[in-house]
Amino acid sequence: MKKPQVLPFDKYALYHEAVQSPETDVEFYRDTYHEIFKSKKVTTLREDFCAGGAISAEWVKLNKKYRSCGLDLDPEPLEYGRKHYISKLTAEQQSRVALIQKNVLDKGIPKADIVAAVNFSYCIFKKRELLKQYFQNVYDSVNSKGLFILDIFGGSQCADIIEDRTKFKNMTYYWDQQSFDPITNEALFQIHFRVKGKKYENVFTYDWRLWTIPELKDLMAEVGFKKVVVYWEGTNRKGGGNGIFKQVEKGEACLSWIAYVVGVKS
Ligand SMILES: C[S@@+](CC[C@H](N)C(=O)[O-])C[C@H]1O[C@@H](n2cnc3c(N)ncnc32)[C@H](O)[C@@H]1O
Fold first, then answer.
1. Which end of the chain, N or C, is surrounded by fewer C-beta atoms within 10 Å?
2. Is the dihedral of CA 29, 11, 69, 109 positive or negative?
3. Residues lining ligand 1, CB < 6 A?
4. How far apart are alpha carbons 230 and 38 in whole angstroms?
């Protein structure tokens, strides 16, 4: 077996800084539930493909009635999350959250009012049948009056072989699109970091199929979701994303975009 790479830095902390914003994510989920159901009766969140469970940890901070659980196959990020995110909560908050080593395809996974699968992790399922099996499992395990929230990215830049670089205070983050096959829509992405002048390559690897919004909508409808709505990100003055997502009927053809696809079970 290949030995895990020993890095002179905390790769999960760098990932968190570069790509995660769990505080605003959980507010979006709560507000979307309120908007769609015109009801504040949401309490439970399941975070699929949770890795360290940063989102599950934030959810229980929002309201003292809220409970959450995160599911991931890999014990390493789960252990990281327990040590770095869950342990920072109060004892009372900790009693309302659980990180569980489980396959999201397993039967009998915990039920919830909202199931969120973000940072595009479902793209690991490359075959339609497998993605449908996952969606069916979510439908069966989301409560009635419940939501399934997925994020998705797209735009013409997805088909380019490019490396995007973002500078942070203590490091540089690289999102490297190494290949894209228009016949299968399969793409290989790598995350690299530059820390203290040295570049660490391939710290995270994603071998994905890039799904499209109509494909996700069709699959959600096929497994039983009554309605599927899309939340599109607004733009800032420079033409980039502003982090504010609104329900839309029509998208916009841009170089790159991010959206949420939300399945409604009622
Ligand atoms: C992109 S990372 C997670 C990102 C995280 N959701 C976030 O918000 O940044 C994908 C995670 O999915 C997990 N994973 C892959 N296949 C899975 C499966 N079938 N069931 C549960 N977890 C899975 C991996 O172990 C990995 O931790």
1. N
2. positive
3. 20, 49-51, 71-74, 77, 103-105, 118-119, 121, 124
4. 17
d(CA 165, CA 186): 22
Amino acid at residue number 101: Q
Name every residue whose Cβ is closer than 8 Å to that of residue 217 and which is 6 or more positions away in sequence: 228, 230, 261
Residue 4, pLDDT score: 62
Ligand 1 mutation pick, 17, 19, 28, 49, max ligand atoms within 8 A of CB: 49
d(CA 4, CA 2): 6
CA distances from residue 131 to 19, 106, 123, 143, 193 in whole angstroms, order as listed: 24, 13, 8, 20, 31
Distance in angstroms (rounded) separating the CA atoms of residues 208 and 188: 6
Low-confidence ranges of the chain (pLDDT < 50): none
Can you give the pLDDT at residue 243? 92
CA–CA dist 170, 31 (Å, integer): 33
Torsion over CA: 84, 244, 18, 101 (sign)? positive
Q: How far is CA 235 from the centre of its chain?
A: 21
Q: Which secondary-structure segment (H or E) carries 77?
A: helix 75-84
Sign of the Cα pseudo-torsion (164, 17, 21, 107, in order): positive
What local confidence, expressed as pLDDT, does residue 2 receive? 60
Task: For residue 232, report the distance from its CA to the centre of ligand 1, in Å.
Answer: 23
Answer yes or no: pTM beyond 0.90: yes
DSSP string, 130-159: HHHHHHHHHHHHEEEEEEEEEEEEESGGGG
Tokens standing for 106? Answer: 């397993």
- Residue 240's pLDDT is what? 85
Give the pLDDT of residue 159: 86
